[in-house]
Amino acid sequence: MSLYLNQNDESYSLTIEDNGEGIEDQFKSEIFKLNFTTKEKGMGLGLKLAKRFIESINGKILLIKSDTSGTTFEIIIPIYSPDKNA
After folding, report:
1. Tally of CB atoms within 10 A around 4
2. 81: in domain
3. pTM, two decimal places
4. Which of 15-24, 34-43, 57-66 has the lowest mean pLDDT?
5. 62 close to 71: Cβ distance less than 8 angstroms
6. Cβ 49 vs Cβ 36: under 8 Å
């Protein structure tokens, strides 16, 4: 797993890469839905709750790529500014 943190004038960007098997194409549009899981004992809460929290602070979570060489997500979080957020 690799993590990359970047900053620009308005936001932080955290890129998360793994080298797993990837997400199958037919599931890519489903991964942020409540109760979606491909795991035998999964509950399908993780990505949904992560997305809900990130969006609650005006951020974004994006699936950038996923194939047999791994998966990449990007989380973008706006930089807090008292002047902008008041």
Report:
1. 11
2. no
3. 0.86
4. 34-43
5. no
6. no
